[in-house]
Amino acid sequence: MKRAMDFLVDFPLLRSDDHITKARQTLRDNVCREAFVHDGKRKLLGYIDITDVLRVTATKSNVTIDGFRKNITPVHPGDPVRDVLVVIRENRTDSVPVVDDQGLLLGGVPLSELFPVVITMQRLQGLVSDCMTQDVVTCTPSDTVQRIHTLIVDSGYTAFPVVKKKTVIGMISRRDLLKDGRWRTGAECTIAVESLMKAPVYTIGPDEPVAAAASLMVRHDISRLPVVEEGLVVGIIDRHDVLTRLS
Q: I need a labelling partner for 111 at 20 to 30 A (CA). Which of 121, 151, 187, 215 fits?
């Protein structure tokens, strides 16, 4: 039986008194969407994610991480994979911290590493339409990065299909904004989504099996797919949605 220790990797760690600008740089330099926060002696205090660091636009700031820190449930090295998945789903994060019996951080388990293994170990049931999110916010290639930044901060959405003449032509995510960095400058209102979006975009139909969506995510190393029917975006499905269909 696979356990948390089998997927344990080093994870970016931050102290609760670190500045938010350090957290922003840390997440920009890593592929992780979260960083775990500790007390200086590796005792887990919570986590901070990309959306949190996007809330502070200043290049320099004395604001510390502590005001943005959120609670997160950890797992232990010997926990079975199924339990790890349950905790990730409950946390609604893309990773989970792994701690020892004293609550000291040992590392983390990223969902991106766990996902390809889990979907081959367990059967996926149902269709994409059974678990997709139907309330999809889209944008156009001419929309400004400022609008996307506002949507991310205000709504909690992390990525948006880019639609031109009713056709999905790309995706833009909070990481795209973070990596580019220009959303923090006065020029942000002139930066168009099309200059940052990722293309081509992979889509799936609502009547396709969830297993087909999972396969596409693994094959192209992506975390979500726009759901398209008759050329129109009718939903979006991500890794967390897929996990709800495990038998």
A: 151
